[in-house]
Design brief:
It contains ten helices and 13 strands. It has helices spanning 14-45, 51-64, 75-93, 202-205, 207-218, 225-259, 270-273, 280-286, 288-302, 347-363; strands at 2-10, 109-114, 118-121, 124-127, 148-153, 159-167, 178-183, 187-191, 196-198, 262-266, 305-309, 335-337, 344-346. The strands form four sheets. Strands 9-8-7-10-11 form a five-stranded mixed beta sheet. It has a four-stranded antiparallel beta sheet with strand order 1-6-5-2. The protein starts with a strand and ends in an 18-residue tail after the last helix.
Length: 381
């Protein structure tokens, strides 16, 4: 059994929108208040406070009478936000993330409800303190009753509900086909079979429309209703770009997993690559990290193998026929001839073939594919 989140869009009534706005506000206030309290306690008194201390502080806030509006919403999202905060601190101390940041009302809002704060009856979802079910657009049925429900509102003003359910992943039939992919910017990726998947460049498609909306936003008076409407228009364009990108990546990743038993790719440090001021926008728009994330979990569900080789492996400079490695190969050189075997190579296709060979070697125990002291690998087209 595995956990899977099913996300749907819903349209709240005015009363539900008001209740959700209060819930989002209270959740955000509790998170920021407790985060400031924990931070001050450490820097002023060198006192480390965990989840139990944060939960006690929440109880004190509700009983003090200083914040009576906290009692107007369900207590479950308030408690859950402290659990998320504790997870953020745990990731920070483990070196995985930065120090927890304060939440802003201008960004995405969310609230998590556990089983005690929602109910599913006759195919309808009811939240705590609301007698009317959510008007959800059920695009697909749920496999079982959800364990948690997360309600969110994005910057474009759209409401979504995410239901976490248990499901039994079904393995796909075994296929002998294996493939290597070389990620890029001109083409999103090139396969070891020579197929090129073009980069859609979703941001560039909406660049003119987005620039016009941003210029109009910059001319509005801060705090005015006109500025709020202009900001919403900019947010909707960004949401359109994001939705197109995610939809395209889901289709490509599903196709790769369905058609291949093994998918080999490079390990890219996207956070480091995105620091390049000339390529950062193009790299962020390509969505390499999201593509690999989708391949990983979809491969696990379908019984496929997704292999990532060492980032320093010289896939572009290495001849896929004889194993000769060039000393230098600049980025503008898109094709080259091997000086040892006189074989002509397309840079991207050759890299994808080498990635496939190195990935298959990773599956074989005892092989070294770091590119340092590497035994020459060869593969056939």
């Amino acid at each position: 059994m595995a956990n899977r989140a099913y996300k749907y869009r819903f349209y709240p009534t005015p009363e539900q929108a008001q209740l959700l706005a209060q819930t989002f506000g209270c959740t955000r206030f509790v998170y920021n208040h407790v985060l400031r309290w924990r931070t001050d306690a450490f820097f002023q008194r060198q006192e480390k406070i965990g989840y139990l201390g944060a939960s006690a502080e929440l109880s004190r806030m509700k009983k003090s009478g200083e914040f009576p509006w906290l009692n107007g919403v369900s207590c479950v999202p308030l408690q859950q936000c402290l659990r998320h905060q504790q997870s953020a601190f745990r990731n920070f101390f483990a070196g995985r993330t930065k120090y927890p940041a304060f939440k802003s009302k201008k960004h995405r809002q969310s609230a998590e409800f556990t089983r005690s704060a929602f109910s599913c009856r006759d195919g309808k979802l009811y939240l705590a303190k609301s007698k009317v079910p959510l008007d959800i657009r059920w695009s697909r049925p749920l496999p079982c009753e959800p364990s948690t429900v997360t309600v969110s509102k994005d910057c474009a003003g759209r409401y979504f509900v995410s239901c976490l359910c248990e499901f039994e992943p079904g393995a796909l039939p075994v296929t002998p086909k294996m493939i290597g992919i070389d990620l890029g910017l001109k083409d999103l990726f090139v396969t070891s079979e020579g197929e090129r998947i073009g980069n859609p460049r979703h941001t560039a498609k909406y660049a003119t429309k987005l620039a016009r909306a941003q210029r109009r936003l910059s001319k509005k008076k801060p705090g005015s209703a006109n500025r709020a409407r202009a900001r919403l228009k900019v947010a909707r364009i960004h949401a359109k770009i994001s939705d197109c990108r995610v939809d395209s990546l889901h289709k490509l990743s599903r196709r790769l997993i369905n058609e291949n038993q093994v998918v080999c790719a490079e390990t890219l440090a996207v956070k480091n690559l995105i620091r390049n001021p000339k390529l950062s926008k193009a790299i962020a728009d390509a969505g390499w990290g999201e593509l690999m994330r989708q391949l990983q979990y979809k491969g696990d569900w379908a019984g496929r193998s997704v292999v990532q080789i060492d980032r320093w492996y010289p896939s572009s400079k290495r001849c896929s026929c004889c194993g000769h490695t060039l000393e230098q190969l600049s980025l503008e050189v898109r094709s080259w001839v091997c000086p040892q075997c006189a074989t002509g190579h397309d840079r991207d296709v050759n890299a994808a073939i080498n990635v496939k060979a190195a990935g298959l070697a990773v599956l074989a125990p005892g092989e070294n594919v770091s590119g340092i002291g590497q035994v020459p690998l060869s593969c056939s087209r």
